[in-house]
Amino acid sequence: MNIYTFRDPGQLTGEVCKYINKIARKSIQKRGFFSLVLSGGKTPKALYEKLSEHDFRATMPWRYVNLFWTDERYVTKDHPESNYGMAFNAFISKVPLPEENIFPIETEIEPIQKAALLYEETLRAFFNEKRGQSELLPSFDLILLGLGKDGHVASLYQGSPVLKENKHWVRAVDAPDIYKIRKRITLTLPVINNARNVLFLVTGGDKKAILKEILKNKRPTDDIYPAQIVKPSGNLLWFTDIEIKEN
Ligand code: 6PG
Predict the structure, then answer these.
(1) Which of 16, 37, 43 to mutate to test the pocket of ligand 1 (most atoms within 8 A of CB)?
(2) Is the beta carbon of 71 within 6 A of some atom in ligand 1?
(3) Residue with the nearest Cα to atom 6 of ligand 1?
(4) How far from chain centre, in Å, is Cα 10?
(5) Partners of residue 66 on adjacent β-strands
(6) pTM for the complete prediction?
(7) Is 35 in the pocket of ligand 1 (CB under 6 A)?
(8) How far apart are CA 85 and CA 96, in angstroms?
(9) pLDDT tens, residue by residue, 150-189
């Protein structure tokens, strides 16, 4: 399993930026574009800020970068809990990324189910235009994922019926009641698992227990964490500041 541990937060985000740049250049060389799916929450904020810093701002092939989201809270883009809003403030507003390359989940659409369907149509249209087929699952070049302390990824929570979704690419969900914003829209597992590369970014001592549990991967199938169902056809990498090996 590809686990990369960096105790220094700056080095960790720098290494992830280098990896994003590497995959971007490889994807553009092969297919003429790079499709990058951003995760939300707090963890990736430092990474996104790093992307806007001079070195990466200058070297990323922004013109060919296309941005999507793994999930979104059902709030307006200027809401403090918006994943789009966090990424916009952290780097999108600071880099030369063409506006037509940015595909946020449109949370102003009501009801939420319609917003989810619209995002699925957006993905179909994008991949139809880029590869002439809209029926096949989207094959994103790189999906960034965080890890919830409860083992969730995107807005896919333990025990959710959406974990078994195998028709729709995007679904509206209700997060468990411990979450401030419960109404969310998320990519489904078939889409995540069809990615060429999936990178988990997990930081902070409060994630040590869940990360060890996930990597141990010994839970019974009927009690598995969503993060353990992420088994992409492509590469799966973990970048963390958490020392897992007990010395
Ligand atoms: C979201 C994220 C979610 C996140 C985890 C970890 O919208 O909240 O996409 O899946 O990655 O909840 O969140 P933190 O980084 O805030 O711990």
Answers:
(1) 43
(2) yes
(3) 148
(4) 20
(5) 35
(6) 0.97
(7) no
(8) 17
(9) 999 999 999 999 999 999 999 999 999 999 999 999 999 9
